[in-house]
User: Which sequence fits this backbone?
């Protein structure tokens, strides 16, 4: 079954957000929405969110869920703005988010009041669970490796792969974040994605426009298996793991990793207002000084 898919591209973070809906019932979900953040001035704004809301309103859609493919390390999620705008909406993520929360609670040295049981989210999704969003049926396919809590969402003939699988000319997500694992990514992509019919449409979570080409977001499982430059259908596990680990060892951290994950492991909630009516992001320092003041 085909559903209507509207794509929104954020050039600041190369992120792709999707609205998926049934044209008859108008039932809809949002996948991986962006909250705009400019580190120069530490400015939070909602242009990306508003573009989606305007589209939803103009098309008389009934939003049921915000689906997060994982706790993003490159952009803040606007999921809580959707909850404010649509009080009945559910923010959903893999139940394995608890492992990510546990790791980053230590990284940020968060207070004991930050609970790592995933209760910040409305829905914790089990692997292979089928979710209902009105008339939509969403199959949750586990694709960890980029992070331990990555899910891909199969809706009709389309699968939304987050950072697990990109366009064929770019490859796959990196696997060097805490608790990431290239071997897990290989097995999940080959077993849970490449086992889908070749005509299944693939919608990726980012596009970095290699070679300066125009932004793109849709391929097919058949195209990925035949042409993905890092993980084809005939790529062996050892070949992929060796390539991924070597490549990842030279990659710089995402520019917004600490700002993003702090917010996203808390289901997109911004830090609480303090006594001076100001909010603060907590960012660890990695000192590379020969002398520490």
Assistant:
């Amino acid at each position: 079954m085909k559903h209507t898919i509207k794509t929104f591209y954020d050039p600041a973070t190369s992120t792709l957000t999707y609205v998926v809906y049934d044209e008859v019932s108008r039932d809809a979900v949002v996948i991986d929405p962006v909250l705009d953040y400019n580190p120069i001035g530490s400015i939070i704004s909602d242009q990306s969110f508003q573009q989606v809301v305007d589209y939803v309103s103009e098309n008389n859609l009934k939003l049921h869920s915000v689906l997060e493919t994982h706790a993003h390390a490159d952009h803040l999620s606007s999921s809580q703005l959707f909850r404010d705008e649509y009080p009945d909406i559910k923010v959903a993520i893999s139940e394995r988010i608890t492992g990510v929360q546990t790791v980053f609670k230590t990284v940020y040295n968060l207070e004991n009041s930050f609970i790592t049981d995933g209760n910040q989210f409305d829905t914790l999704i089990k692997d292979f669970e089928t979710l209902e969003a009105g008339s939509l049926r969403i199959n949750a396919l586990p694709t960890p490796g980029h992070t331990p809590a990555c899910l891909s969402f199969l809706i009709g003939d389309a699968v939304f792969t987050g950072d697990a699988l990109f366009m064929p000319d770019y490859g796959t997500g990196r696997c060097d974040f805490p608790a990431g694992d290239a071997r897990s990514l290989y097995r999940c992509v080959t077993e849970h994605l490449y086992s889908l019919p070749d005509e299944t449409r693939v919608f990726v979570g980012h596009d970095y426009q290699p070679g300066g080409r125009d932004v793109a977001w849709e391929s097919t499982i058949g195209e990925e298996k035949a042409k993905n430059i890092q993980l084809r259908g005939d790529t062996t596990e050892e070949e992929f793991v060796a390539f991924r680990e070597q490549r990842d060892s030279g990659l710089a951290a995402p520019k917004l990793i600490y700002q993003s994950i702090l917010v996203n492991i808390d289901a997109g909630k911004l830090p609480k207002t303090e006594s001076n009516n100001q909010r603060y992001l907590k960012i660890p320092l990695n000192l590379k000084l020969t002398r520490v003041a």
In short: The radius of gyration is 19 Å.
